[in-house]
Amino acid sequence: MHSRRRAGGAALSLLVAGLVAAVAAPAAAAVPDGAVRAAVPDAAALTEAVTGKLLAIATPARVPAASQTRVTVSRRAAGWAFGTAVALAPRETDAHPTGAVFVAHAEHGAWRVAFDGDVDFGALATASPLVTSREKVVLGSEPAPLYAGGDYRTGMALPFAVGQTWTLTGGPHGWGGGESPYSSVDLAGGDQVVRAARAGTAYTMCQGWIRVIHDRGYATDYYHLWNNISVNGASVAQGAFLGYTGTDVTCGGAASGRHVHFGLRQDGAYVPIAGHDIGKWVFANGAGAYQGGARHGSAWVGAGGALHNFGALGLNQGVVDANGGGTLTRRAGPGTGYAALGSLADGATATISCSANGTTHTGRYGTTALWDRLSDGSWVSDAYLWTGVNGPVNGWC
Fold first, then answer.
1. Dmax of the chain from CA atoms?
2. Could you say which of 96, 102, 159, 347 has the lowest number of CB atoms within 10 Å?
3. How far is 263 from 33, CA to CA, in rounded Å?
4. In degrees, to the nearest 5, what angle opens at C-alpha 346 toward C-alphas 149 and 372?
5. Any idea what DSSP says for residue 87?
6. What was the pLDDT predicted at 19?
């Protein structure tokens, strides 16, 4: 069914404690956003420009004396630079690092800097000789509007092997812990091997932290890893090895018991994981951070429960939610007046060819007249399918 919920408020960038003292701001009149004035932009000017932009998106709530930022330039050519920037957090509960993949270009005696998710990041990445043609396929795309038209599809599996069952050790919570948005969950168990939730390009932000940038504006973060891969724009497939669950807090924060802290980003910001389907589970918030859980069909699993990785839900698929168990009747046409052709079990995956309006029905998330024609030619009411979209997922019949 198409989810009728909306994320509350605009997604905000993570506010992380423990950053260095702010860099002096350049004169605003002649220097573009994200750039620092310099007669000849050198390494020091680049670091200043990247650090200043990083501090602008990660305003600290408190500044421990030992805090710092790390700017790593992994590639450089005449007038161009590419790398990662990380603001470390104190090693305490409810604190996690923040960071970005950046591309920089020397323009008019200053560095123009763009972070992944920025509106101009795709254009700079496409123009840069430092970005490979493979990376440009992902990085060069323009960010899509957040949840465009109520679209919560991710095409992601859970960040472990398909077919395994792990424990949801922490329900939806913030990347830094208790703050909003609740973008992250904690997972542990199985073979403890953390894998990419979807294909993309991967970057090592710092020890224990990998970011994979995907299509459709999405990125996923994986923290507390042990023996994680060291990557600088490597192409990874869905299910690719990233590291092992652990308790690493090299970049700050705290970890009690080995797990992966898995975070969802879109357009350069952490976004609510609630309402999104990952591994054919739809996450939902609880009364507070680390509570909540996920639903597969009518089955609900709360924090501390077991999540089976059913794999990625295709962008033209839905999961049957019979709203209490049982089965969903398949019909010969878009309405209950048509002959019954069999049924689908609660939790089953259905592939949708197209949609049309028919008789009206009420499911878990609301009332709709939309019916979906399946790949076998039969029809089911969209009220009992979770697709992640308000409307047809594969056009009208």
1. 77
2. 347
3. 27
4. 45
5. E
6. 31
